[in-house]
Records
---
Amino acid sequence: MPTNNKQLPKELFEPIELSAEKGEELTRPELSYWKDAWIRLRKNKGAIIGLVFLFLIAVMALIGPLMNDYSIEETNYDASNIPPRIKGLEWLGFDGIQKWRVQGTTEDDAITRGLTGMEIGEEYLISSKVVEEPNKDNDNYYTVELEFDVYGARGLEDKYYWFGTDSMGRDLWTRTWNGTRISLLIGIVAAAIDMLIGVLYGGISGYYGGRVDNYMQRVIEILTGIPNLVIVILMIVVLKPGLIAIILALTITGWTGMARIVRSQILKLKNQEFVLAARTLGASDKRILMKHLIPNVTGMIIINTMFTIPSAIFFEAFLSFIGLGLQPPIASLGTLINDAFKSYRIYPYMLVYPAIIISFLMIGFNILADGIRDALDPKMKR
Amino acid sequence: MSKYLLQRIGYMVITLFIIATATFFLMKLLPGSPFNQLASKLSDEQMAILLSRYGLDQPVPIQYFNYIVGLIQGDLGVSFQFNNQDVTKLIMNRLAPSAYLGGQAMIIGTILGIVLGMVAAIRNNTWIDYTSNVVAVIGISIPSFVFAGLLQYYIAVKWDLLPVAFWEGFEYTILPTISLMIFPLAICARFMRTEMMEVLGSDYIELARAKGMTKSTIMLKHAMRNALVPVITVLGPMTVSLMTGTLVIEQIFAIPGLGEQFVRSISVNDYPMIMGTTLLFSVLFIVVILIVDIMYGLIDPRIRITGGKD
């Protein structure tokens, strides 16, 4: 804006009409609550990064398994434990080369042992280097690191496993994205059920108040006293492990947080004039609750649900990790990580990709949820 | 205050009773029996002797009664997987590594988190603030077992800096402690930053500054003290994360602790062990929540715990 005011001729100014209505006129475009929130969210760099992460992961979870010809169950024992290789991306480390450490009395002895042990012809050995000279600590053995071309040695020159294969020769690219899909599904379904129960329970408890509220709150108080870790584990131990059992176990106490939030909001809102007006007009309790009260709590409900999804995904992965999760052949990110732990010292690629994806998924959900909270309810900013 | 305390302890007892009852009956619903693998090798008579030895031949209500009476006396029954040993004793034997690890992670994590959060608030919108924010998001988001796995692979296996697993001395505790402490650190840093920002914007800080106090006095004496109070509330989620953490971290680093034993007893249907550990976790959680509520009221007189909280 120029600071030195231009001298404008007087004729350019004309008086505007003065009237009472003009004073009330809105000169800016009207913004709904949601539009306003969206504008705030868009300014939040973190939230947008989270949204992009989630979008990419969700798209890959949908189309990833279709991008090659392998299925999640298809086993091929000739192609077990094969490191990742991608056409055109060899220079990024996706070159299908396996590193293997062997010990021997001499350098050559170690190499021979390695090659016979892995049943690999000498022509597929790419390089070898001594990583540890003989010393007292390793009983005077040479430790040699071999690098060899697994694809060639197994006769799979024309195949490309983008994330490698597991110990049963299943394609990990397909399994990882399929697992992502299942993890997302569990998170979203569990959060949706939590939301439904929590909103109804909290709504009824807050709206009716009095004795109903009192009893309903005591139930919640006792339920929240039980660590949900314990409940989830017990439920899974009792139910047959599977998709439905996991979702059930996650939702059995998961809804209490939502119920508490909805109740306290409803308590605040129910004595306001618009509720009184609705009642005067003869609206039923159900209508007041569903059409007048709950819509006013939508912001809080969305915020809370956004935080429930990552925690459900985490719990599923955690259960799978301690062996209480999904049963094969279905895989989730948690079961993939659990499987990878058995041999990740030799085959780290099995652990790395699911671990990265679950980390980005969780980070994405958490920062997006933070952003949505700041956007929908700026007062609650943390 | 005493009325409130009594009421809370009453709830605690009810909750524990419900947990004990639910655990007991859920275990009874389980399909497998601890003698499943032996069933084909044993004659009916031998099986009957085994069952009566563990009191499993009696009707369920009597088993339940015996169990509750035992509980009140601090007796959690005998473990099925370790010949006839008391569950209470087995748990006690395993408690030390878990408690040590949990305590170490909690103390270091909390202190680092508080310092990080405070510095981030004082140096608001600088690179320190952004770093602290990133650390907090990562710590809250990444599951501890993923983090532990990556740490173990890079630091222990690949670069050979620290031992990979087992429990033989201080250097063996470093990696598990780091994996466990990332969540307390993150949540403390985040909470402390928010509280500190709020306190720094208040009138009494302005007054202290107007009086000409040095920056360090203002920060340490006025701001930090007040900002620390609400941080107590994160103790609840922290306990849960430590309990969840021990289950997986002890598996990964092969630590002979409670969590490792619990996971094993689930896979072999050792009911008394599952029930005992479950109860211990529940007691721990409930007591921590109670302590948090009481401490909160004692430290900050502005919060009255006698009233209803909505």
---
Amino acid sequence: MSGPEQKLLEVDRLSVSFGRRENELRAVDALSFSIGAGEAVALVGESGCGKSTTAHAIMGLLPDGATRQGAVRFAGTELLGASRRTLQDIRGDKIGMIFQEPNSSLNPVYRVGDQIAEALRRHRSLSRRAARTRTLELLELVRLPHPSRQIDAYPHQLSGGQRQRAMIAMAICCQPKLLIADEPTTALDATIQAQIMELIDGLRRELSMALLLISHDLRLVARWTDRVVVMHHGEKLEDVAARELFETARHPYTLGLIAASVGLDRRLHYRKTTLAEVRTTREPQGGYAFAIHQPHRVADLPPASSETLLSVENLVAEYQTGSGTVRAVDDVSFTIKAGESLGLVGESGCGKSTLSKAIMRLIPSASGRIALRGRDITRLEGDELKRARRPMQMVFQDPYGSLNPRRSVGDILNATLVVNGVASGAERQQKIKAMLDQVGLLPSAIDRYPHEFSGGQRQRIGIARALIVEPEFVVCDEPVSALDVSIQAQILNLLVELKASLGLSYLFISHDLGVVQYISDRVMVMKDGVIIEEADHGTIWTSPRQAYTRELIAAVG
Amino acid sequence: MTALRLVQKTGRGLLNAIPLVIGVLVLNFTLIQLLPGDAAEVFAGEAGAATRETMELLRIRFGVDQPVLDQLIIYFYNLARLNLGFSVRYNAPVADLILSRLSMTVLLKLAALALALAVGVAIGVAMAVWRGSWLDRFLSALVLLFYSTPGFWIGLMLVVLLSINLGWFPPEGYRTIGSGLKGWAYAADVARHMVLPVLATATFFVAIFARLIRTAMIDISRQEFVRTAKAKGLTPAQVNIKHILRNALIPLTTVTGMQLGTLLGGSVVIETIFGWPGLGRLTYEAVMAREYVVLLGILLMSSLVVILANLLTDLLQTWLDPRIKA
């Protein structure tokens, strides 16, 4: 793709490191790539690979302690050594940037329109009135609904997708030559994701901007960019044409990421296959070696029995807000058979987490009935509830937030056993050791604290905490959503393995259709508190009955 | 709509305050009854001696001849007719007495608060913007000194330095007695008398506000919208003032509101050192003289002031932070 004409952006042997001497952490290591005018290039890699740091280095937004080497040339200007003044003039004018979290990327105390106008007036001499007129045009351009009203809205009054549209309007207000989008759709629902990417792509062509898209999502970058730069540990592994990413990628790491991902189109199912895992090992010379590992399929996966484990009938859960009662779960009925894995998909705010909390009796139900093995547990209290709830456990999304940071892993597991009435200390120690082994952690983990573990290991601790009391039924609430693709594959394999060896039944909640497709025997789709569709895993993806389900599938397909 | 809700919110706040004020009054009336002696005994004690008949007359005059419960009922009955009672000791209606003292306290303390806010915010911004620099370290040390040194000691040192040695400002009182000044000249005279007590009161609050602004600004500077502001190409000054400081004003309002209540209660020590006729000294004197009519009047007034200050803080915060619903 390298032409004789001058590139718009040239990153030449860029290195960024934080800290000094022995504590030095090299985030970006001799990275080189370039973007031509109007070209769309992606930086793709897992968390900590240095892709965001690269974007910040280009924009001159690195924190004070960072040291930089190499060169970043933008339209002939060297950015790394440039004066503050030069950088400030380029930012927002020649290079626009949008960020991952539209919720926190806008200042909460100013109106959306004023924040866009502020960027405009910084780079163009416009009167207040002219800036407002232009802002309104921009909001129309990014297709924000009701622009003449929303221009005076505060960020918290907009939805996530609308906020991201406002962010985009701000980033393109001066018609930049380059737009840097740092995980622009990661925090958004699938249907909104597709709309935002379509918008960015359309604007790129209309305004002939170049795009630097930063993402962890291989499918997303293959669909929306021209060229993909794959990064790992600050280094570029390969630079391939996006169209052929899935065919021509050569590097074992890229191949591993492709193999480990659970896209809807791959039609993977846990009863047929395990997920490939990428194994990264550090070589003595300092480099990395990559290998793809396909675990053996668990042979004895018993089919779901005909016995009903959990039945939920006409369940209603409500919560109070300033403006009245919201019915988050509205007349929901379903059953889970022993040994079955039931998937629940839906977008944020559809009530899927509220439903799981209501089933676990963590929040009260307004009406309806929850029965575990035929016993009504909807109104149990105190000791009775504690005993009845013991066969039900929960694995949460956030492996960082759901473990007490001041207690060692051994303490966390021990407390769970004590609460659940395992009296003998020796028995508890034995169970803890066995459990850690089962979730793939070393026995030495007992004395360590949650912050000493990586995200994937922490999720293993979360799973150990849920399973140590030997439940029959586990609610997994987005258990792999916060994890990288390669870790996600490991955790999903682990959940399947444990399901077989411990005879578990799952209610598996996720917004990620690929993940739900892989791990579910049956799938329910939830929207606005109602289960709108329920079908066998074989039929729901190929012949969905509801328009909304089709929309969800189309958004990721 | 919003205006209506604002009025409703204010009304609700005031309505909730009524039982609170009654509670404060009953509690303090009971406490003062538990103290040994009454107003008549103190009065007689100061005079040196009194006959049984004089004591009877004094008791009737102070209204402490009635049973305790009747005294309280009579007090509330008068209060309902907006009559705070009459101070025998000061020979003036309690309402007039308090209002004259309250205005002096408000004048002094609001001036001190305004000064502390201006200086404290300026120091806090400087410390946050140049954090880690020698300036930050110097200001931090200064702020720590302000924080840990009692106001009365600073007051005494100011008197020694600026008044006795340099003779720039009068050491006590609130006006030059017998000067007969009028209009602006009078105001300037009061202002000159205010300088030292205002400085002595303000130092502690300078420290509180500076520390608060420094911490809040450093916290906020790590927020993502600050990165957005930088990515827009805004200058550091624009980022620091318009985006970071503006958001730091929200916690500042909370703390200022909390301090406003304490400030307006008056301070016995500062008022005593500088001979300032404020509420603090009046309170002290009323307790020592066991004159519950005056004390209850002061408590009523102070609780109203605190409630008003809280209400103002709420309204100010609603205005500063659009996420709070009116």
